[in-house]
Design brief:
The chain has five helices and 15 strands. The protein is of the alpha/beta class. It has a single domain (4-282), classed as Nitrilase/N-carbamoyl-D-aminoacid amidohydrolase, CATH 3.60.110.10. It has a six-stranded mixed beta sheet. Strands 6-7-8-10-13-14 form a six-stranded mixed beta sheet, covered by helices on one side. α1 runs parallel beside α2 (69-81).
């Protein structure tokens, strides 16, 4: 395995036609592979518009199984191009049981793992609890041809516990497929929210000595403006590449895996963790004595 791995984040808009989104995203992933990418990460719920803007039972028809159309199409692409793919999916697990999930597909087309979003938000225009059961996979990492990959999803990105557990599972790359934006009424504070969003994820890279990539969408869907700004950060938190806030892009970044060990030698956070003193993290809140 080469010490340097080129990763790609696909930042695009979504139309109301799932087949159109699938075709366009396949084309972007194929182009990313032609430009040297070895790991390609798609945005959250890539195959649809961000339907949790509303609560509607009609939207359950957008779900698919794993294996299903997305895994079949991207497995074929992986075999054709030799890339690893992180493919977010609105998963129908069983009748009445749905998850916000992703599939990790290795460079030979094998499905090597499934992750189900653990933290489910419920906010105006982000009504995910109506659709998705909380994940039950834990924060796992998967061996691929180009490194050990963990991928969490959107709201998970605000929780240091998930990033830490993925790193402890051996992740070298931590991807966050994302659908995040703002309501036009909040445009005046959107830059503050966007900065916070980037800062928390760069902190995961620093605290764990891993590469972090966040793939967001762009465009306006009804009341939500998605702010793009997909980025890749290195193990010291440095931004290796950042996309625009409003354009479709294939964002490429070269990740030197030797930097992981260098970062962890210089900042040995994993060595100095007080694992004997963290029992309180499993509680909802520590009441005052």
């Amino acid at each position: 395995m080469s010490p340097t791995v080129r990763v790609a984040l696909l930042q695009t808009h979504a139309s109301a036609d799932p087949e159109d989104n699938l075709r366009r995203t396949l084309a972007l992933a194929r182009e990313a592979a032609a430009r040297g990418a070895k790991i390609v990460c798609l945005q959250e719920l890539y195959r649809t518009e961000y339907f949790p803007r509303e609560e509607s039972q009609a939207n359950f028809r957008l779900a698919e199984t794993i294996p299903g159309p997305s895994t079949e199409a991207f497995s074929a692409l992986a075999r054709e191009t030799g890339v690893v793919l992180v493919v977010p999916i609105f998963e129908k697990r069983a009748a009445g049981l749905y998850h916000n999930s992703l599939a990790v597909i290795d460079a030979d087309g094998r499905l090597v793992g499934v992750y189900r979003k653990m933290h489910i938000p419920d906010d105006p225009c982000f009504f995910e609890k109506f659709y998705f059961a909380p994940g039950d996979t834990g924060f796992c990492a998967f061996d691929t041809r180009y490194g050990r990959v963990a991928a969490l999803i959107c709201w998970d990105q605000w929780y240091p516990e998930g990033a830490r557990l993925a790193a402890l599972a051996g992740a070298q790359f931590l991807f966050y497929p994302t659908a995040i934006g703002y309501h036009p009424n909040d445009a005046g504070v959107a830059h503050v929210q966007r900065d916070a969003w980037e800062t928390i994820q760069r902190s995961h890279a620093i605290a764990n000595g891993v590469f972090v990539g966040a793939a967001n969408r762009v465009g306006r869907e009804d009341e939500v403006v998605f702010w793009g700004a997909s980025f890749v950060a290195g193990p010291f938190g440095e931004v290796l590449a950042r996309a625009s806030q409003d354009k479709e892009e294939i964002l490429l970044a070269d990740c030197d895996l030797s930097q992981i060990e260098s970062a962890r030698h210089g900042w040995p956070f994993l060595r100095d963790r007080r694992i004997d003193a963290y029992d309180g993290l499993t509680k909802r809140f520590l009441d005052a004595a």
